[in-house]
């Protein structure tokens, strides 16, 4: 039985620790929680106790080394804010543990280099949790492309839209500061760029990007004629009439995780999406040439009226067209099955000179189109055979963020960026 410690007990952490306790009691043991906030640490223990598990030791983040020494985990699960992932990855590796980290693995090239050096130095392993690889519809796309159904893939047009619930949420919390998250092209699009790498079995070569903050933020609201502003929802009368506000007091989990915990660290989970201090983009377009020769055109919008994606592959023998509509949600550490749950999906194969064929794909149970349970089983249970190689290493994690890091650099410089120039380690 493997032993796991977890650092970063915010909303995303519940996905991992709840599953270990509830679903894998015979193969995985949770031995410690670690965080900068003692209120959230206490809440995490109440959550596992509600599932019949006894409370486990808790440690402040400054006691990370002591946690490892006293509880002897085999693996450390990292769900802290993105800019700190590399710190805990490297320290865990140096202390003799393997690592499971949330995406993105890290947010820039220097931090990525440090992780590679630590893996080489320790010969330990890092897993990056790309649950979208495990979703049945994404697995089926990979199978179709690998089978040669449309021949050699020359072009991919990929549009991902975040709606005014999930998309807006990135502009309320720590993600709104690019120094914390790398922006959405790193934090969110790492999923999408990883899927392209996974589907096409290739890697990015050169990137050009454009992006702006066009909808969220105070200046954009002022241009649309808004004159009434507030800094955060809690305690604001103006927020009561704003469909973009987040009511921490109205959600038991949000209240326990954030409203009740903010006295310790001053972190406000419910900041106004139309306030100052937002340094990430909400409207982005990227073009990528891959090593295979395939060209990707990609767009991400964070204020759409629906949530999901369309991706079209054009190859030497035809075209594959995909549309996936997901349910709306806000990450509150609540019912994980709602995250990325499907409303509908369509996969249409259009061979040259033949009639189109609709590809049937069973709808998976659980979050992210059924990908979450498969990922969790792979991490904490007995993995199924995986001929597609869905388990992602630190190398996969690096290639997934390489496109977003290069896109950020392209937006900054206004020019095409070669990935290997920016990240020589790749």
UniProtKB/TrEMBL annotation:
All residue ranges annotated as the Gfo/Idh/MocA-like oxidoreductase C-terminal domain in the record: 143-418
Domain of life: Eukaryota
Gfo/Idh/MocA-like oxidoreductase N-terminal domain mapped to chain residues: 3-130
Pfam family, one: GFO_IDH_MocA_C
Source organism (scientific name): Aspergillus brasiliensis (strain CBS 101740 / IMI 381727 / IBT 21946)
Protein name: Gfo/Idh/MocA-like oxidoreductase N-terminal domain-containing protein
GO molecular function: nucleotide binding
């Amino acid at each position: 039985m493997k032993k796991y410690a977890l650092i970063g007990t915010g909303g995303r952490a519940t996905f991992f620790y709840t599953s270990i306790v509830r679903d894998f009691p015979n193969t995985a043991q949770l031995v410690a929680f670690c965080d900068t906030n003692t209120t959230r640490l206490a809440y995490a223990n109440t959550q596992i106790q509600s599932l019949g598990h006894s409370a486990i030791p808790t440690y402040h983040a400054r006691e990370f080394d002591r946690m490892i020494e006293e509880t002897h985990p085999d693996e450390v699960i990292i769900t802290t804010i993105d800019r700190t992932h590399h710190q805990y990855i490297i320290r865990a590796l140096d202390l003799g543990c393997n690592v499971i980290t949330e995406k993105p693995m890290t947010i820039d090239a220097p931090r990525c280099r440090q992780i590679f050096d630590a893996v080489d130095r320790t010969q330990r392993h890092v897993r990056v949790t790309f649950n979208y690889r495990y979703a049945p519809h994404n697995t089926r796309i990979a199978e179709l492309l690998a089978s040669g159904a449309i021949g050699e893939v020359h072009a991919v047009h990929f549009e991902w839209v975040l709606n005014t619930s999930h998309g807006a949420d990135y502009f309320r919390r720590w993600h709104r500061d690019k120094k914390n998250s790398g922006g959405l092209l790193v934090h969110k699009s790492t999923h999408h760029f990883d899927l392209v790498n996974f589907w096409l079995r290739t890697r990015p070569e050169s990137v050009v990007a454009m992006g702006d903050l066009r909808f969220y933020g105070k200046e954009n609201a002022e241009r649309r004629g808004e004159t009434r502003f507030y800094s955060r929802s809690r305690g604001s009368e103006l927020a009561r009439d704003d469909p973009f506000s987040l009511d921490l007091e109205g959600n038991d989990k949000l209240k326990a995780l954030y409203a009740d915990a903010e006295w310790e660290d001053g972190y406000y989970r419910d900041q106004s999406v139309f306030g100052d201090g937002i340094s990430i983009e909400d409207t982005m377009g990227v073009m990528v040439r891959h090593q295979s020769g395939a060209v990707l055109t990609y767009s991400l919008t964070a204020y759409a009226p629906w949530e999901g994606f369309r991706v079209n592959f054009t190859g030497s023998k035809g075209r594959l067209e995909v549309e996936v509509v997901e349910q709306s949600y806000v990450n509150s550490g609540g019912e994980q099955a709602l995250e990325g749950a499907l409303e509908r999906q369509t996969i249409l194969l259009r061979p040259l000179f033949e009639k189109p064929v609709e590809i049937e794909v069973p709808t998976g149970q659980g979050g992210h189109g059924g990908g979450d349970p498969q990922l969790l089983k792979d991490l904490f249970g007995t993995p199924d055979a995986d001929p597609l190689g869905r388990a992602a290493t630190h190398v996969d994690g690096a290639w997934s963020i390489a496109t977003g890091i290069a896109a950020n650099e392209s937006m900054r410089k206004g020019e095409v960026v070669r990935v290997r120039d920016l990240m020589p380690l790749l």
